[in-house]
Amino acid sequence: MSEKRYQVFISSTYEDLKEERKAVEQTIIRAGDFPVGMEAFPAADEEQFEFIKTIISQCDYYVLIIAGRYGSLAPDGKSYTEKEYDYAVEIGVPVLVMLRDERGELPANKTEDHPEKRAKLEAFIATVSDGRLRKGWTTTDGLKLAIREALDYAKATKHRPGWIRGDQSSSQETLERLVAVQEENERLKQVLAEAKPQVAVPENLAGLDTFITLTGKYSHTRPGQYSSTTSSIEIATSLGEIFELLAPHLMQAKPDRTVGPIICEGVWRRFNTGNRSGRSFVMTDELFQTIKIQLMALNLVSVKTAKTVGGGVNLFWSLTDMGMQEMVRRRAMTTEQ
Q1: Do residues 29 and 157 both lie within one domain?
Q2: Cα–Cα distance measured from residue 76 to residue 145, given in angstroms and rounded to the nearest whole number
Q3: By C-alpha distance, which of 99, 95, 89, 65 is closest to 158?
Q4: The domain spanning residue 236 has which CATH number?
Q5: Domain edge (last residue) among 194, 221, 242
Q6: Which residues form the DUF4062 domain (predicted)?
Q7: Of 21, 178, 184, 265, whose CB count within 10 A is highest?
Q8: In terms of domains, do 126 and 218 share one?
Q9: Domain count of the chain?
């Protein structure tokens, strides 16, 4: 008699349940089955969700872990976790709900601070609790036990196709199914890797030795006066000097709105001759955008949109590999110094 193995999709919010997801994965593997989760995929978006739906449709069981977070919202206002659940229910994949007990004892960083998302979480919990196999847990060990019991019960009462070893099957159907999933996964990875747009860079692109004039304003207080005065200022420098000042700050990604002040502060400190008492120099937005585009064109910085901790979207600056090399070349001390 052949022995089946089952593919189990793990769905949950991610950042607050990393440890719990790992525990569930280990439990599923020790049971002889195959866990599948969001760790295998890039950050959630609508296009990626369409691919995840194909993976859910190939799974035998769907495990939903809920604690204190509702998760990132899709354009329709639902979290991607709830959309995964809805799809599993729609296509008839058995759902095993692991609901965190005593959620009021969770730390603040593992709960929703927005009233609307808290309300959506409670509504989601009410939905999944209606007529579903549900287990409670409060600790990681308790979650392991709950998932093992729920999975054993589901296998006994909700029969699924599962997977059979190639040497135990009279046909190649199972092997072909596995190979197809692997090939589709590799194909999607390749598509995502090649999806970066190609930007045409001018052949006569200005380099880091190009001098530019930073035009802006600064505030200062004249001797004998209490109120500050705002004056115009022009500071001549090179793009290379600006990059040299900025680069160390970009070894970790920085939000776009913080980069301009970093440049202004660095330029002011380096070029202020000491006869100005103020330090609130602010360059024009047009100049800031020009500097951004030029450093991107030189492949020294990368500026991309990414999700923030609060679930929003923002632009973030970071160094490219070439930018890292250029920073080290310019900033590292040598024995001649």
Answers
A1: yes
A2: 35
A3: 95
A4: 1.10.10.10
A5: 194
A6: 7-88
A7: 21
A8: no
A9: 2
pTM above 0.85, yes or no: no
Taking alpha carbons only, the member of 274, 287, 270, 159 closest to residue 217 is 287
Within a domain: 205: no
Structure tokens at 10: 């793990």
Q: Where do the DSSP E strands lie in the chain?
A: 4-5, 7-11, 34-36, 61-66, 95-100, 133-137, 163-164, 211-220, 229-238, 254-255, 282-283, 301-307, 313-319
The DSSP annotation for 110-153 comes to GS--SHHHHHHHHHHHHHHTSSSEEEEESSHHHHHHHHHHHHHH
Whether 336 maps to a domain, the answer reads: no
- Enclosing domain of residue 236: 211-331
Residue 70 shares a structural domain with residue 150: yes
Distance CA 301, CA 295 (A): 6
Cβ atoms 307, 43 nearer than 8 A: yes
Residues 24 and 80 in one domain: yes
Structure tokens of 289?
Answer: 């955008």
